[in-house]
Amino acid sequence: MSASPASRPPVVLFYVQHLLGIGHVFRATRVGRELARAGAEVHMVWGGTRLPSIDTQGLEMHFLEPVRVADAGFQDLVDADGNPVSDAMKHRRREALLALFEDLQPDIVITEAYPFGRRQMRFELEPLMKATRAAPRHVFTVASIRDIMQEGRAEKRVKESVDAAKAWFDLVVVHGDPNLIRIEETLQGAEAILDKVRYGGLVTPPPPDLSVPPAIATDVVVSTGGGAFGHTLTQAALEAMPLSRHFPDNWLLIAGSERAEADFLALKQTAPAGMRVERFVPDLARILASASVSVSMAGYNTVGDLLRVKRPAVLVAHTGGRETEQLRRARIMAGKGLAVMLTDAELTPQAIADAVDRAVDLPPARTGFDLDGAAHAAAIILSEYSKR
Prior knowledge:
By secondary structure, this protein is an alpha/beta fold. Helices cover 34% and strands 18% of the residues.
């Protein structure tokens, strides 16, 4: 039996499941590390493939059998080898998660995205949340969500999410700044749970130490996050560099840690002279801070990096399938004069080159947004837990 809650630091079970992209994993682990730094004992339950590029220092890691989605349709779950996830595997994962909950007897349970995402994982998340409410003492429950959610969801799905939030969650932490966008602008049904909502700020890395030179000095950085999306961008960027009036060479293309090895090697082999291709760089913020222009997908983490270093940006919004998040974020940034926007449907080498040449003339960014969202979210969670 564990020690009583009064005699120990709060024990946190933080559930994280990446299905395709990995941006939210950076956000969740940053919040987890700040919780640990504040004195909590943080156990991160990891449901996707292992990512050696993620900093998990200070976190107790627990790995479930990895699953992901087969494609950007986000419908079919597959295992690490690409095989359909069986009922037996779901059972093993569910039992492992519940056993961990029983063993840890956490004071706080945090779910990343759920109940407003990760619907595919209900087979294990619903039993987990039921266990929190059946525990002999109150377990403080937190939904950790990004600032811009998927829009246009079916009314039935909206009701499921809102009902789950009402029944199982004490707190909804939005990792955003309401001065940039409010959660009810994109989260259908949010009005019913606004009493549970707290804004933690944008989760970004700390400001880079500019006294240390970057590992790679470059004029233009082209990045695609984890690389699950962005194939069109990287292909067009290969031909865009010599078309730029201001920067016809010295570009860095970051393919992404999740990019297939064959695709990565093909990029390296076809890159023109003057373009460097890397799979991953550990000091992206420092590289961006010294570059002239960034070209990237309009994902949460990359935009956070750009706001932190205040560099001119070209933002490419992924609009495939039913995706709306990146388009909304790119439009906000462009509307505030912080970026030049393209959609992935507009990507041509000439369009990228022209956008780079326009972006370098943008005025210096002055945002004033809360960019310390990891520390602030951790403080909010622990403060609200202490009031329980």
